[in-house]
Amino acid sequence: MAQPSSRPSSSEPGAPLARSLAEDLARTLRAVADPTRLQILSVVLDSSDGRATVGQLSDALELRQPTVTHHVRILVDDGLLQREPDGKFVWLSVSPDRLPAIQDLLR
Q1: Reported confidence tier of residue 21, pLDDT bands at 50, 70, 90
Q2: 90 alpha carbon, distance to own chain's centre
Q3: Best CA proximity match to 72, nearest among 60, 62, 82
Q4: Dihedral sign from CA coordinates of 25, 66, 92, 87
Q5: Are 32 and 105 in contact (CB under 8 A)?
Q6: What is the number of other CB atoms lying within 10 angstroms of the CB of residue 9?
Q7: What pLDDT is attached to residue 33?
Q8: Percent with pLDDT over 90 in the chain
Q9: Helix (H) and strand (E) counts for the chain?
Q10: Which of 16, 67, 69, 81 is most solvent-facing, going by the fewest CB within 10 Å?
């Protein structure tokens, strides 16, 4: 997936953002435009080891697990979070290539 922060290679002043890049950016903006999703990202980032399970997120946000799972799926689909299976747990962490952007967003 292309990073939404890059501009088209054209150096023409007033050149429009490439359509595919604009679509990627719009999808990311929709993904983070929800307060619950921003809270999920902040809980994951603020955890001691930079990862959390859906159960931990559910407890921290006082939401039901199906609600958290719905929001997590959107963040994973956009590439903001990644899943890491470990035995019976699935850990969620911010994708390394998106970490700087998410940290900037949550400042």
Answers
A1: confident
A2: 16
A3: 82
A4: negative
A5: yes
A6: 7
A7: 94
A8: 71
A9: 5, 3
A10: 16
pTM of the model: 0.81
Reported residue count of the chain is 107
**Structure tokens that stand for 74 in this block:** 């959107």
- Dihedral sign from CA coordinates of 22, 81, 68, 84: positive
Residues 6+ positions from 61 with CB-CB distance below 8 Å? 36, 39, 40, 43, 68
Q: Which CATH class is domain 35-105?
A: mainly alpha
How many other CB atoms are there within 10 angstroms of residue 68's CB atom? 25
> CA nearest 84: which of 52, 60, 56?
52
> 40: burial class by Cβ within 10 Å (0-12, 13-18, 19+)?
buried
Token pair listed for 53: 């399970």
